[in-house]
Design a protein that fits this description.
single chain; mainly alpha; two-stranded antiparallel sheet; 4 strands; 2% strand; flat
Length: 541
């Protein structure tokens, strides 16, 4: 070993490493002549990792390799097929709901190429359902026409029958149809999506499978969504949404008979949204009175139902009921930033209803991160109403006219004008003991004196005097006495005693006295000794 060439220390394949004389200190202070050579043992590296920098760079390159989003979307869609099969075999709708919840994750990656690849891999041989799905997305630029043509030339041979061990489930057909609906809606292919949804809804009416109900509810949602943006759009009385009401009512009747709560809840909210879009409030109210919303519906459907119910009651001037429904809708709606659209809409309507009730919303509502920017016009509206600024209120309505109309709160906000006038008059009464109607209109910025027609000629504030010189304290004291007397009378009436119980006690006492007299008489006559008495000694007698 002494004649071998020394090697560098730290190589990966070394065990014992020799150190030469020029780099190794001498042992026991001796010179290098005649000294023994010292052997240093280097322990192996942990987990067998190499220290070569090139190897490390190679590993980092492999780990940093990006995943193709197209392949990821295809694999995620195919993975959902297994969940749908488990939903059918185990008859458990939770697996179908998991599939529906995964749609937002693949929504951004849905293209005609991805859909066509999944469809051709799922349907090994061409079928009418597969052709219908491909026909809906064929106009997209990414549609693989050559591969589809090759796939469509496949014939139903014995080999193809062997490769397909089982038929594709109807649940998978509907799931792929939903993905096509999502893709068409994202591409704004409204006419194609409406036609495709019409055929899909007609196909669903021929199926009677409970495992397909959660998927069918989502189909009806996109079916209604396509017609809402189809020209002529609401609130036109001849809007396209009017034409689908019969289909939705038929679906609601069928779902009620089959006790299909998923479709029943979804179609009920879609019908209410349909009626409200064209301002058919009476028909929406009749639908609510003649149908029963399923109590076991999904949380998002309950929130939508409460929101539409609150809008209907607010239009009908039932502000208390509307406030209760909107409170429930805001509590059930998601508050995350990505899903804050519904929470913003319900909160905006809730603020307007509270103002119509004469209340001022809590300022903490406007400080929430998901609402701070969206509620900026409504914050200014609350400030104008609370201060009685009529001119500022009118300027706000004109400034945010388009925003209020988009939120469907414009007509309700116009009702707040009388509240603003009343608040301004109330604040003015603190400064003036008597003021004419004309001067009041000038200070409030009203157009004419008729705007405050409920005030006769002038407004006069009552001076605050000695309240104890009036009958008000005596009346309040009298009301308290009456309340106490009424409470006493109700307490006496609430007491219950057994019937004729006192007579029974008197009768028992009289019989006891008669027995005592007889016993005493017998003792006196000597007919009975003291020891024979059943009660013992009668010394007390």
């Amino acid at each position: 070993m002494s004649g071998d060439k020394p090697r560098t220390n730290g190589s990966a394949d070394q065990g014992d490493v020799e150190m030469n004389d020029s780099t190794t200190p001498t042992k026991n202070g001796k010179g290098k002549d005649g000294d023994e050579e010292m052997t240093v043992v280097v322990p192996p590296l942990k987990n067998g990792k190499a220290t070569d920098s090139a190897a490390k760079d190679g590993e980092k390159t492999e780990e940093a390799t990006p995943v193709d989003p197209r392949e990821k979307a295809i694999q995620e869609i195919k993975a959902n097929f297994a969940l749908l099969e488990r939903a059918v075999t185990q008859f458990d709708p939770r697996f179908s709901l998991r599939v529906l919840r995964s749609i937002p994750s693949v929504r951004s990656q849905l293209t005609a190429d991805v859909l066509a690849t999944v469809i051709m891999d799922t349907y090994v041989r061409p079928t009418p359902t597969a052709f219908a799905l491909l026909q809906a997305v064929k106009d997209d630029a990414s549609f693989p026409r050559e591969r589809v043509e090759e796939w469509s030339k496949k014939k139903d041979t014995p080999q193809s029958q062997k490769t397909t061990s089982k038929e594709v489930l109807p649940e998978i057909d509907v799931y792929l149809s939903i993905l096509v609906q999502v893709h068409l809606y994202e591409r704004k292919a409204i006419e194609t999506g409406a036609q495709f949804s019409d055929g899909l809804v007609n196909h669903l009416r021929s199926l009677n499978r409970r495992t397909i109900d959660p998927l069918a509810a989502r189909v009806y949602f996109y079916y209604s969504l396509f017609y809402e943006v189809t020209a002529p759009a609401p609130p036109s009385p001849v809007a396209a949404v009017v034409g689908i009401r019969k289909t939705l009512l038929d679906a609601l009747r069928t779902a009620t008979l089959r006790k299909d709560q998923d479709i029943q809840a979804s179609v009920t909210t879609l019908l209410l949204r349909n009626y409200l879009s064209t301002s058919h409030i009476n028909q929406a109210d009749l639908l609510i009175s003649h149908t029963a919303f399923p109590p076991t519906a999904a949380n998002n459907q309950i929130a939508r139902y409460l929101y539409y119910l609150g809008r209907i009651r607010a239009i009908q001037l039932s502000y208390t009921e509307a406030h209760e429904h909107l409170i429930g809708a805001t509590r059930k709606s998601p508050t995350t930033y990505k899903a804050s659209g519904f929470y913003q809409a319900s909160t905006k309507l809730l603020i307007v209803v509270e103002l119509l009730m004469g209340d001022i919303p809590d300022r903490a509502i406007f400080r929430q991160p998901s609402l701070e920017k969206a509620l900026q016009p409504y914050l200014q509206l609350v400030q104008a109403v609370s201060t009685g600024d009529v001119i500022g209120f009118q300027n706000l309505v004109q400034k945010y006219n388009s925003a209020f109309r988009a939120d469907n709160t414009y007509t309700l906000i116009l009702r707040l004008r009388q509240n603003v006038i009343k608040t301004g008059i109330r604040m003015m009464s603190l400064s003036y003991a008597r003021i004419s109607l004309r001067d009041m209109c000038l200070r409030l910025g009203l157009d004419s004196e008729e705007s405050a027609e409920y005030i006769k000629g002038f407004m006069k504030s009552k001076d605050i005097g000695d309240i104890y010189s009036t009958r008000e304290p005596g009346d309040a004291f009298h009301e308290r006495i009456q309340a106490c007397l009424a409470l006493h009378d109700e307490s006496v009436k609430a007491m219950r005693f057994p019937m004729n119980q006192h007579r029974l006690e008197l009768k028992n006492a009289q019989e006891a006295r008669e027995r005592e007299r007889e016993l005493a008489k017998e003792i006196v006559d000597g007919e009975m000794d003291d020891d024979d008495t059943p009660g013992g000694d009668f010394e007390g007698l």
